[in-house]
Structure formats: C-alpha cells, structure tokens
Model the fold of this input.
Amino acid sequence: SREEMHFDDETAARVVLSHSPPKSRFDDEDTAYLTILRDPVSRGASLLRHVSARGSGARGNPEEILSSLSSAELNHATHLIGWQAGDDDLERSLSRAKRRMETDVAFFGLQERFSEFASLLACFVGLEGFIYPRFQVAEVKCEISDAVLERLYERSLFDRDLYRFAESLYQERYSELFADDAHLKPRQMRSYVALE
Done:
C-alpha cells in the first residue's frame, strides 16, 4: 500500500509498505529502505496458519500447503532483499541480501524486538515515537505438527542463514542503544504518529 506521512514542518514522505522486492535501486538518493525480519520458522508457521484458515479440505491442510510452497516463498526475506531481475538463484540472493543488509538498508529491525524498531523508526523520521496496534494477529486455531515444523526448518535454510547474520549485525549496531528499557517508558512528548 502507498501512504503519505505528514510531519510538523509540513513536509510529506511517501511510504510504500510491501511484501514485494523493491522496484528501484537501493541507492536512490531520495529513498530509504527499511525492513523487519522475522524468525523464519515462526514466519513459515504463521503463513501456514494464514493459508490454512482460508482453505478447506486438502487446501486447509498445513502439510499439503507446505508441499505446495516454493523455496522462494519459504525463504521470503532472502528472495525479497536479495532479489535481482533475471536471477532466481537463492544462494546468490543470500549473498546479495547480506551485502544489502550491511550497506544499503537504512536500518532494520527484528520482529521479536519490534518496540526497538519503532524507536529507531521514530528517530529516523524525527518523531518522538509511534503509537501502533498489533498488526496482522491471526486468531487462527491450526495445529502445526512437529514434523511440519521440522520440514519448515529444513526448507528455510537461506532465511535462517540471513536471520542469523541479521541478529549478529543488529547486536553489533543497536544493542547498546537498548541496553535498558528506556525506549519503552512512557514519555511526555509532542510529536507522535498513530499507525493504524
């Protein structure tokens, strides 16, 4: 989706929220690329629950759904960040994704530490903070067996590698900023934006 954010100084920023590879180069001067990575097995299980809730019969069966998913779908972050037109090789995409995480992504977060990402984002755009609801929380009751989780683990090889790399990079860059819980404490500030 495309949104416009307006700030106190009356400037506007165009924001594109997407699960698709960026259409333009990472080094465009007026573009900042931000991303949030999620534990690949957790993301895969969530995807299976989401698709299962919309299917019926075999289409609603997590094992069948998993069998129908491509390697790119199960290594979504690698494919997304490392995407290059005409090259679907995930090994090369992983190398590109790591390089882009280091040099081209303005900053990134880990979903398991989302409040820290929101604090970084607020600083990046010059706001005091964001007020955000829980996004895309599925209340789907769908059992994912240990065998399916094991297959998810095996098939998300590239995303697991990228996630470990991102965790290490995150620790190196941002861990000192969040050594205490100051970013979580209520603050009396003026410029908050609500994300809905």
